[in-house]
Amino acid sequence: MPTDDVERFLGALSPAHRDEVRKQPRPQQEKLAAAWETELREDTDLDTLSELSPAAAESEAARRVVEGKDS
């Protein structure tokens, strides 16, 4: 299980988004990973999803961060 925030974030992404993020400089990857952590903590809709499937909640939050969308 990855302990690095960027690696955890990359693991939550779809393959296409993962490739896109890996092409970015490390500081940008770290910024996105931090935004992902914030999304997971602050979005109450993800809390409900997380109870059902933590992996699905992480994936949804990652998608939102990369796509710059809230839903």
UniProtKB/TrEMBL annotation:
Top-level lineage group: Bacteria
Region spans: Disordered: 10-71
Residue ranges with Basic and acidic residues bias: 60-71
Biased composition (Low complexity): 49-59
Protein name: Uncharacterized protein
Species name: Streptomyces klenkii
